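Hi there,

I know you've been waiting on this one. I reran it after we fixed the sequence typo, so this is the corrected version. Both the input and the resulting structure follow.
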Amino acid sequence: MNEALVLAAKAIGAGLCMGIGAIGPAIGEGNAVGKALEGMARQPETSGTLRTNMILGCAVTETTGIYSLVVALLILFAM
């Protein structure tokens, strides 16, 4: 019975880790892309620079999601 509770707690913890860990990158990337598109619409000549910076920012933001995936996997399999 105790083992079942531990396994259930692990699954719930990993699910919460991924769920909450995915909210930040989603909001951040959505905001970055929206602002970059707004800047491209206002000044089309800077679209190349804005696109490059947007992609770099999205890559950095996505690392938070990857970290939460690693933590969720550690919760499931390492403990």
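Quick highlight: The domain at 2-77 is CATH 1.20.20.10 (F1FO ATP Synthase).

Best,
R. S.
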